[in-house]
Structures are given as structure tokens and as C-alpha cells.
Amino acid sequence: MKFISNKLRIENVFVQNISKKYGTPAYCYSYNQLKENIDNFKKKFKSFSPLICFAIKSNTNINLIKEIKKFGLGADVVSMGELMIALKAGIAPKKIVFSGIGKTANEIEYAINKKILLINAESFSEIKEIERIAKIKKRQVEVGIRLNPNTDAKTLNQISTGKKGNKFGVSDKIFHELVKYCKSSKNIKLKCLSVHIGSQILDHQPYKKMLRVVDRIIKKVNYNFEFIDLGGGMGISYENNTKKLNYNKYNTEIKRFLKNKKSKIIFEPGRSIIGNTAVLISKIIYIKENNNKNFIIIDAAMNDLMRPALYGASHRILPAIKKNIKSKKLYEFVGPICESTDKFGAIKNFQELKEKELIVICDVGAYGMSLSSNYNLRPKPVEILIKGSKTKVIKKRQKLEDIV
């Protein structure tokens, strides 16, 4: 995405042309950025050839998942619906890992029937439920156990998953007991140690600490795991000059960890694959003047992009057409929903804007549409895939008639 003659362009298509053809708000994904992200991820870790399972929760558009599947990726799912869409997109069952702390009996049975690679269990009760269903089916089910390594990922509290106060995984003591239990079970085959410490991680140090804990636990339980699932959580740059995760250092730590081990690494990236591929195009409805700031009221809202309201997350905001005239007032970009949290950021020294002009909210590919809703009975926006000069609707804009 770049400005050409002061006009913002996604690949070879100008934002203004997208707005004219498809309306606003509109999610627009760059195919080339998606390809670049996947190629880069594979390249950084090619020394140990991990199984890369895309985290479906980050983006559930089946047409995007189909494209991701073409690059050889598997899927990390956390519900039966996500498992169903991964299979429908053509991802091989033996490349699918089922995570999550609250899998129901129906979900477990469905996963067993589909013969997926792993069910990553997160409690003693879940292991016993898997065993119960496996006995009925006279099957041996391959599972992983998710360890809570009590590692602070130094990220937002709302997306931290690896500290002892978080609901995810089991303690090292219970992990040890579960390994013993699985070894004595006829219907469960323990194949994986799973761990995931959080999301939007920008420093390799938490991963380094996590690997040390995992290494210590493996030595303690004295068990040969076929897979070590390291989860995902690799962050992206949402703001200018944000520190980026050093993949090379993380790769070095994993190679050090794998010495004297024959385990295959599984990754579950979501944001790092899809996050920076998309923008949300929105039109300015009104500009509401205030004493010290102007409210820029746009037609996108928190139902379209929940992250700022949910986490206080920041996203870069750009004009569709660049001008050299700066506003003398603070601009606060807000949506039309009747909530004070329906806002996307306050920016000083933004260029002067007028009603009916377009703005673009950047890096919305992850947890954008997948967290969207019909709050205030608003239809969900259109999703478009851009490849070179071609545009393709990959999900139609909802119609009010369909949701009323």
C-alpha cells in the first residue's frame, strides 16, 4: 500500500476506485502481502521445517483460508465451527490442531470422527472426556497437553495466555500427572506438548524463557514428544517505529532447544500471517466541531472493527488522498454507534479533512472481521481481495433485509 501522485493505492488499485465500485465501509486484502508474509515465515524457520497451522480465529473468511491452504499451511482451530470451515476450505485433517479450554463432547466427537492431527487438551477433565468418547468409539485418539509455563509475554493483559493466573493450560505438576495418566491409557496416545503464551509479542525474550521452561519440563517427565506446539503470538507493527519481533533470534533459540530432540515443531500464527494484509476503507459522514478537537464521524464503527474498543488497540489511519494542509485541531476518529468506546484514535497534526472524503484504517486483517458483529443492527461490511489490478468480492456486504 502506497501513495501514487498523492492517491493511496492497494497493489494496483486506488482506494477511491474501490469505494466507488463497492461502497464503504469495506475490508480490502492484499494477496501479494499475504504471499510475502507466508514466504517470509517459512524462510525464517526453514532450518527445522515446522508445521505451520494458521490460527483460524484471527480471520475466518473461507476464501482467504483457501488461499492460505494453497501455500501448504494447516489450521489451528478453537471451535467446531472453525474446524468445519478449515475442512471445507480443503485443509487436510492431519494438518489440523484443535485447541481451546472448553471443548464440548460434541466438538470432541466431531474432531475424533474427522481424524485430525491433534486435540490439545487443557485439563484433567478434558483428557477424561476424550478418553470416554474414544472408548465408546473403540479408538485411540492422538492428543497434546497444553502446559501453562507461567511466562509473561509482556503484552496486553487481555491477550496474555501464559501466566499462572490465566485460564489456559495446566501447571507443571498437573502436566506431570497427565503424562502418567496418558501413558497408562489404552484410548489416548500422547504425542504433543503444547504451549502458547500470548498474542502481539514483539520481543523474543519471552519465547526464550518459555523454551527454557518447556525444556525443563520435558526432562522432568522423561517423555519423547513427537510434536512440540509452540503456539503463535508473533506481533506486527501497528504504529510507525514500533519494535519488530526478531525472527532470527527466535529461530536460534528454537534450534538450541531442539538439540538432542527429535520433536517436530508446530506453529500457530494468525496475526503475523494476515494482520497487515488488510485495510478498512471508510467515508467521513460528518465533522463535528468541538472547542479543542473535531470529531471525525466515519461510517465504520466498533461493530466493524472491535480491537480499539476491546483492547484500546491502535491502528494507523491514513487519508485516501494526501494533502499538505494540516489541521489546527486534534482529530478524534469515531464511529456512529451509541457507545463512547466507538472510536479509532485521536491524532494531532492530521491533514485537513472534509465531509464525504475517505480514510483508511490500516492492519485490520487479524481480529477485524472475525470479531465483527451486528451490534446496533448494523450489516457487516464487504470483503474484497486485491491481486495486482484485479478485485474480487470474497464476502458480500450483509443486507439489512437478511438480518432484520
Largest sheet: 9 strands, mixed
Poorly predicted residue ranges: 159-163
Please state the overall shape, judged from the principal axes of the Cα atoms.
elongated
Using DSSP, what is the number of strands? 20
Helix content range of the residues, please?
A: 25-40%
The secondary structure category is alpha/beta
How does this model look, in words?
There is one protein chain. With 404 residues, the protein is of the alpha/beta class. The protein is built from twelve helices and 20 strands. The chain has helices at residues 15-22, 31-44, 62-70, 80-88, 105-113, 124-137, 172-183, 205-221, 247-258, 271-274, 307-311, 400-403; strands spanning 2-4, 7-10, 13-14, 26-30, 51-55, 74-77, 96-98, 118-121, 141-146, 188-194, 227-229, 264-267, 278-289, 293-298, 317-319, 330-334, 343-347, 358-362, 382-387, 390-395. Strand 7, helix 5 and strand 8 (118-121) form a beta-alpha-beta unit. The chain starts with a strand and ends with a helix. The relative contact order is 0.16.
Which key features would you list for this structure?
Lyase, Ornithine Decarboxylase, Chain A, domain 1; 29% helix; 404 residues; TIM Barrel; elongated; 2 domains; 9-stranded mixed β-sheet
Question: In short, what is this structure?
Answer:
With 404 residues, this protein is an alpha/beta fold.
What layout of secondary structure does this protein have?
Layout lengths: L1 E3 L2 E4 L2 E2 H8 L3 E5 H14 L6 E5 L6 H9 L3 E4 L2 H9 L7 E3 L6 H9 L4 E4 L2 H14 L3 E6 L25 H12 L4 E7 L10 H17 L5 E3 L17 H12 L5 E4 L3 H4 L3 E12 L3 E6 L8 H5 L5 E3 L10 E5 L8 E5 L10 E5 L19 E6 L2 E6 L4 H4 L1
Parallel strand pairs: 4-19, 5-6, 5-12, 6-7, 7-8, 8-9, 9-10, 10-11, 11-12, 14-16
Antiparallel strand pairs: 1-2, 2-3, 4-13, 13-14, 13-18, 15-18, 16-17, 19-20
Helix pairs in contact: 5-6, 8-9
